Amino acid sequence: MTRAVVLDKTIALLGLMGVGKTTVGRRLAAVLAVPFKDADEEIERAAGRSVSEIFDDFGEAAFREGERKVIARLLDGPPIVLALGGGAFMDPTTRSLIKDKAQSVWLQADIKTLVNRVSRRDTRPLLRDSDPAEVLATLLEKRASAYAEADLHVNAAAGSHETTLNHILDALEGGR
Ligand code: S3P
């Protein structure tokens, strides 16, 4: 597939857990022929621990600090596709850095779709001890207004990740 998108800035994918930032981001990077990075994976690499272990051993605040540093470093490099963790864009420093240095894309889906998708893995500390639907709905309420500051808003609910990928490419082509 060739698409008329030339990357002069990093594309930062944001949105709630389970929306497909990593899966779709990987495919988007392949189509655009640029590297893909997942912020959570980079934090895990830097810490030598999984996200759950970081939460358990050091607490969420320490995770957020690592997240801020790792994202700042990634945004300093050449253009990539960057999948953010769901909470990253809530940090004011990270948010303004992303506004400055990246093109941000909010992937949106309804809670039912997200619950379906997160149920495939149990690696997310925020969903471990409570009802995922309730947690995700609360997070959406808290985060929607910040997420809405993203440059592009893309529907990631209906259909497959391939459909979402095409929606993103359409939005990128239309958005420049
Ligand atoms: C979080 C989302 C997770 C991960 C951490 C916290 C959040 O990333 O960063 O568990 O606050 O929404 P994904 O959105 O990639 O699951």
Protein described:
This protein has 176 residues and is α/β, with parallel strands linked by helices. 53% of the residues lie in helices and 12% in strands. It has one domain: P-loop containing nucleotide triphosphate hydrolases (Rossmann fold), CATH 3.40.50.300. It is built from eight helices and five strands; from the N terminus they run βαβαααβαβααβα. A five-stranded parallel beta sheet has the order 2-3-1-4-5. Helix 2 (39-47) crosses helix 4. The longest helix is centred in the middle third of the chain and has 16 residues, at 60-75. The mean pLDDT is 94. Bound molecules: shikimate-3-phosphate. Residues 17, 21, 40, 51, 85-87, 124-126 line the site of shikimate-3-phosphate.
Map the helices and strands.
Elements: E1 10-14, H1 21-32, E2 36-38, H2 39-47, H3 51-58, H4 60-75, E3 81-83, H5 92-101, E4 102-108, H6 111-118, H7 132-147, E5 152-155, H8 161-174
Residues 17, 21, 40, 51, 85-87, 124-126 line the site of shikimate-3-phosphate.
Radius of gyration using CA atoms only: 15 Å
- SSE string: EHEHHHEHEHHEH
Poorly predicted regions? none
DSSP, total strands: 5
Fraction of helical residues: 40-55%
**CATH architecture identity:** 3-Layer(aba) Sandwich
- Global shape: globular
Bound small molecules, deduplicated? shikimate-3-phosphate
Q: What would the average pLDDT be, to the nearest integer?
A: 94
Strand order of the largest sheet: 2-3-1-4-5
Q: Brief overview, please?
A:
The protein has 176 residues and is of the alpha/beta class.
Task: Supply database-style keywords.
176 residues, alpha/beta, Rossmann fold, five-stranded parallel sheet, 5 strands, globular, binds shikimate-3-phosphate
